[in-house]
Amino acid sequence: MRSFLYQRATDPNMAVQLLSAAAAADDPLTQAAAQPLAGGTTLIDLMKLDVMRPTAIVDINPLAQGWSAIETGGESLRLGALAKMSDVAAHSEIERNYPVIANSLKLAASAQLRNMATLGGNVMQRTRCSYFRDISYENCNKRNPGSGCAAMDGVNRMHAVLGTSDRCIATYPGDLAQALIALDAAVEITGKSGSRSIAFAELHKPPGTTPEIETTLQPGELISAFSIPGRWPRSVYLKARDRQSYEFALSSAAVALDLQDGVIRDARVAIGGVATVPWRARETEALLKSQKFDDGLAERAADAAFADAKARQHNGFKIALGKRVVARALAQAATMEIRS
Question: Signal peptide location in the record (predicted)?
Answer without folding.
Answer: none
